[in-house]
Write a structure and sequence with these properties.
The complex is a heterodimer. The longest helix of chain A is centred in the middle third of the chain and has 55 residues, at about 220-275. In chain A, α13 links the parallel β9 (about 365-370) and β10. Chain A has helices at about 20-30, 30-40, 45-55, 60-75, 75-95, 105-130, 140-150, 155-165, 200-205, 220-275, 300-305, 335-350, 380-395, 415-430, 440-450, 485-490, 500-505, and strands at about 175-180, 185-190, 215, 285, 290-295, 315, 320-325, 355-360, 365-370, 400-405, 435-440, 455-460, 475. Chain A has 17 helices and 13 strands. Chain A is of the alpha/beta class. Chain B has a 6-stranded mixed β-sheet with strand order 10-11-12-7-13-14, sandwiched between helices. In chain B, strands 4-9-5-6 form a 4-stranded mixed β-sheet, with helices on one face. Helices cover about 50% and strands about 15% of the residues of chain B. In chain B, β1 and β2 (about 190-195) form a beta hairpin. The chains are: A alpha/beta, B alpha/beta. Chains A and B meet through α6, α8, β1, β2 and α9 of A and α6, β1, β2, α9 and α10 of B.
């Protein structure tokens, strides 16, 4: 019996492998406030939403499957929350059943019987929910799940289960089947259905005539009693294991129900939080090729931790494989990059996104390479640290990846940093990736601009006007300085000699080795 | 076609290992001194793990003296490259070893039906093993003298009346007992036994009832019950009643143990020990071969004056890495013309010592007549392997260490001759650079003059260019990311550190490298 609310054809495993770039995504995109809002402190929700967000789907149809379930959950939040509650309570009740670490089969059987009896209650509740499901549900996922419940656990089935469990109480003794094994010791023990009662057998037992194939262990024979108990244990071994496995499966069903519904509960939690702040969200449109457009796009994590109004950006980048963002410091470039990466992750996990409209090509995975401030190790140096990190990414990136580069390779001088970046970006684009680049390397940005490739979009964060930084990006070519000196001066620094600001920009002299981008 | 190494035409114990079994040495042989330095002690321990009963260690320690003997063993190994044949021999050996264990356990049993059954099972397993082995050897093309002679012997044995009667008696008795199925009903202290009459398995009912919840992998809850060597009283009383309920099967069992008191053949037992040497080595190789590592049959030719090997690796290291599904780095070495010594320099942890050990291992293994790591291995041969690895600094202290180094090296130089192979590793590191240079130079010049070939690992760059006899090899500059280390040791002068773009190349981030790395 499957839940299948996350995938049409298989289970969702929140404990499965998370891509190795996940910790960098969390750090670079600042996902923690988003994940916290989704989990609301619930450990299971935390695990589930984290796994779902970080292992996105690469197939638009699979995304739409979840979007439909999500829409049903947004329409019927009480239904989703009740399902989650039933599952979580079932799991908690099961955990309260006392168990020893390693047990004899008789102990395992007792344990499994107890768990089974406890879980029959929640199973009945799920069945009732399925019976009473509102007819406004539309998603294939939820409709199928309820249909399965109605079909698989009908009334006759509950009766079969009760009978099966009753047979394991052994009110008329235990019958053990066996053959002869090594050295004629009993072998292949199993729990047998009690022998069919034949008249002859009844006579042999009942009518005093001594059965030559029967014997009694003496009442004070302790070794004999132990041997009988062991024989019984050998006999019920497989049946006890089968019941314990069955109990595991029912527990796992509730585990899956909690995990899969949990993802949507996380979405509901986030939706409530955003709504309370008056922030918009929308179901995105997963598309193919190089679609990418957004309106009212903002970063949820920043919005969740700030009291100020969030800056919303629009973007029209259909058909653009490379987006180059240049411009002033504190001009909102990184924030924009984060909101774009986060929206892509949310879309690919099946969530809504924080925008008023969002349409984007579905890629494989999202990779981030952000300049890091932390102290580099002595052995490597900052550039080597960046290179090592990029190299690790390169081992995982495929041709459908979205790669976000934020001030990459700026830890060496501009000419070298630009050359490294050119080679990396060219290789990524030719492999088929989409690259969004925030850079202060004018040599790099300008050389990309000079190519005049229509597949490249140039955005610029304009310098702050009197009213403070605008944070809004506009389309425009890179400019020779990144306003660092200006900002520096504004913050109370002194005028930098012009040669310093200009030294690292070789201007229009084309370096010989630039590959075509 | 047998390899024609002149073995006599009938099978006798020892002929799987030696051309002339009667002249071969036997008994205990100490581990050679160089085993520890070359990590061959680790290889030996791993090789014979689980085969202690066979006492195979001397075979791994005693190098062969003639190329004839090496070819004799190569021929057996080549036959065993037929995976089906090797597997058949392996299964045969496993079954024989189990049978010996079973027979040894029979005596102390008290219950007659148990004793009789153990005897029968052992005999049945023996017959099965012999029959399967004969089928496996069948009409296969065998190239080795050793296996060809054994096959002839085995054929005659299987056809003998003694074996044929044993096999058919065992088969009939086993069949009758296998059909016995019974039920034991336990209620309180009352136990009743009866013949099975089609009652279903209740465990299956349980499984079926809950099958619809089945998802993925099942955890195993079944308790392990030990297969006992003796029955308890209740089990004996049950067995007596089973015997009573199935009189025919138990009568046949009784006849069998009286008619066949001594089933095993001695020559076949001897063969099983000898084949273990080959199987042990192949078992060691198998996982490494599965990982893609190559082994080859080395050419030994003292007169050609060439020492050459490609894609070699350290056999002990390969095992360790292989357990984690990782591969050792492959290296090449060659000493041709007047070249005598590989002088290896370069940064630490770059694979220098590993290549030095590999050089020694390849020589030892070649002289055992076994397949060696690498491809196209041609050696001068080695009557003697001499090693000198720097002692443990902490254990000996500065001055003591230098003294100990010098003592060992002087001894080594004194023993070296033109058929010797030496491996000297990082000596004189406890002294000054000038001392290390002059001591090293003196040692190398003497060894070269003696005509020995070998490896000298050193931190003194100048020793790499003493003259035509020395070949400079350098462990490649370690990458800044330790996971990208090359462990390649190549013929080359040292390299300097790179500029930024070159650094990027080291991280595999140049345009060309990335295009190869990123799957579209």
């Amino acid at each position: 019996m499957k839940v299948h609310l996350m995938f049409r054809d298989h289970d969702f495993d929140p404990t499965g492998p998370i891509p190795e770039e996940a910790s960098e995504l969390i750090q670079d995109l600042g996902l923690t406030p988003l994940l916290d809002a989704m989990s609301g402190g619930d450990r299971l929700l935390s695990e589930v939403t984290r796994a779902a967000l970080l292992t996105g789907l690469a197939d638009p149809e699979a995304i739409q499957y979840r979007q439909q379930v999500l829409n049903d959950c947004l329409d019927h939040p009480e239904l989703a929350r009740e399902l989650y509650e039933i599952a979580v309570e079932a799991l908690a009740a099961q955990r309260r059943v006392f168990t020893f670490g390693r047990q004899a089969p008789s102990g395992i059987l007792r344990y499994a019987l107890r768990v089974m009896r406890i879980l029959l209650g929640p199973l009945r509740r799920v069945r009732e929910l399925a019976d009473q499901a509102p007819d406004t549900l539309r998603s294939e996922g939820i409709l199928n799940m309820f249909r399965t419940v109605r079909e698989e656990i009908d009334d006759g089935y509950f009766q079969d289960v009760e009978e099966c469990l009753a047979g394991l109480e052994f009110r008329d003794g235990i019958t053990v089947g066996a053959g002869l094994g090594q050295g004629n010791a009993g072998d292949n023990y199993y729990l047998s259905q009690p022998p069919q009662v034949s008249t002859g057998f009844l006579e042999r037992i009942g009518l005093g005539r001594r059965d030559p194939a029967a014997f009694d262990v003496a009442p004070r024979d302790e070794a004999g009693a132990r041997a009988l108990a062991e024989l019984a244990d050998r006999g019920i071994n497989s049946a006890a294991s089968a019941l314990a496995q069955a109990a595991d499966h029912v527990v796992a069903y509730f585990g899956a129900l909690a995990a899969e519904v949990g993802f949507y509960i996380g979405c509901l939690n986030l939706a409530d939080n955003l709504a309370s702040r008056g922030l918009p969200f929308c179901i995105p449109k997963p598309a193919a090729n190089l679609a990418l457009s957004a309106q009212g796009l903002y970063g949820p994590s920043l919005a969740l931790v700030t009291q100020q109004s969030v800056v919303e950006n629009s973007l029209a980048a259909d058909g653009r494989a490379l987006i180059v963002i240049t411009g002033a410091n504190s001009g909102g470039k990184s924030t924009f990059l984060r909101s774009l990466g986060t929206a892509q992750l949310m879309m690919q996990s099946g969530m809504f996104v924080t925008a008023t409209a969002f349409e984007a090509a579905v890629g494989s995975r999202v990779f981030t390479h952000f300049a890091r401030d932390e102290d580099p190790t002595m052995a490597n140096g900052r550039l080597a640290e960046e290179l090592a990190r990029m190299s690790r990414l390169a081992g995982a990136i495929d041709g459908r990846a979205l790669v976000l580069l934020n001030e990459s390779f700026e830890s060496t001088n501009e000419a070298e940093g630009s050359e490294i970046a050119r080679q990396v970006i060219r290789a990524l684009l030719e492999a088929g990736c989409r690259v969004v680049l925030v850079t202060h390397l004018y040599d790099l940005a300008d050389s990309l601009y000079q190519r005049g490739n229509p597949g490249t979009l140039f955005l610029r964060a304009d310098p702050a006007t009197h009213g403070g930084p605008t944070y809004v990006l506009t389309e425009g070519p890179p400019r020779p300085t990144a306003f660092g000196p200006e900002l520096f001066r504004k913050m109370g620094g002194w005028e930098l000699p012009i040669s310093v600001a200009g030294a690292s920009t070789p201007g229009n002299a084309n370096p010989p080795d630039r590959g075509p981008i | 076609m047998p390899d024609g190494t002149g073995a006599p035409g009938t099978y006798q114990p020892g002929c799987l290992l030696y051309v002339r079994p009667s002249e071969s040495g036997s008994g205990q042989i100490e581990q050679p001194a160089y085993f520890r330095d070359l990590n061959l002690d680790q290889v030996e321990a791993a090789l014979f793990e689980g085969r202690a009963d066979y006492g195979l260690e001397p075979l791994f320690r005693q190098t062969l003296l003639s190329e004839d003997e090496m070819r004799h063993r190569h021929a057996v190994f080549r036959d065993l490259e037929d995976a089906e044949l090797a597997q058949a021999l392996r299964e045969f050996a496993v079954s024989l070893s189990a049978i010996r264990g079973d027979l040894a356990r029979i005596e102390p049993q008290r219950h007659r039906w148990q004793r009789a059954r153990l005897w029968l099972d052992a005999a049945q397993a023996y017959c099965d093993g012999i029959t399967r082995l004969r089928q496996a050897l069948g009409e296969r093309a065998l190239g080795s003298t050793g296996l060809t002679l054994f096959r002839g012997y085995l054929g005659d044995y299987v056809e003998s009346a003694r074996f044929q009667t044993l096999a058919s008696d065992a088969r009939n008795s086993c069949r009758a007992l296998a059909e016995v199925r019974y039920l034991v009903k336990l209620k309180g202290l009352h136990v009743s036994v009866r013949r099975y009459a089609g009652e279903p398995d209740y465990g299956e009912t349980v499984t079926k009832t809950f099958a619809r919840f089945q998802r993925g992998h099942d955890k195993e809850y079944r308790a392990e019950f030990q297969t006992r060597t003796s029955l308890n009283q209740v089990e004996e009383r049950i067995l007596d009643r089973v015997a009573m309920l199935f009189p025919d099967a138990f009568a046949a069992l009784d006849r069998f143990s009286r008619n066949h008191p001594d089933p095993l053949d001695r020559n076949i037992l001897a063969f099983e020990r000898e084949i273990q040497f080959y199987l042990a080595y192949l078992d060691y190789l198998a996982p490494l071969r599965n990982l893609g590592l190559a082994f080859c049959y080395p050419d030994v030719d003292a007169s050609a004056g060439i020492t050459e090997a490609q894609n070699v690796f350290d056999l002990a290291l390969a095992k360790k890495l292989g357990d984690g599904k990782r591969l050792p780095v492959l290296n090449d070495f060659a000493l041709t013309g007047s070249e005598r010594v590989l002088v290896i320099t370069g940064p630490n942890q770059g694979g220098k010592t590993t290549l030095a050990r590999t050089f020694g291992q390849v020589h030892h293994l070649t002289m055992l007549g076994v397949p060696v790591p690498g491809t196209e291995v041609r050696l001068r041969g080695a009557s003697r392997i001499l090693t000198c690895f720097a002692g443990d600094e902490d254990a000996l202290g500065g001055r003591g260490k230098l003294e100990s180094d010098i003592r060992t090296i002087v001894e080594l130089v004194a023993r070296a001759d033109s058929k010797s192979v030496f491996i000297i590793n990082e000596l004189f590191s406890s002294t000054t650079l000038a001392d290390a240079r002059s001591l090293g130079k003196a040692v190398l010049e003497r060894l070269i003059a003696a005509g020995a070939t070998g490896v000298y690992v050193t931190f003194v760059d100048e020793l790499a260019s003493l003259g035509k006899a020395t070949v400079s090899m350098v462990s490649q500059v370690a990458d800044h990311d330790p996971t990208l280390r090359t462990y390649k040791v190549i013929r080359a002068p040292a390299r300097g550190l790179a500029y930024a773009v070159e650094l990027a190349e080291k991280f595999g981030l140049s345009y060309e490298q990335l295009r190869r790395r990123i799957v579209p």
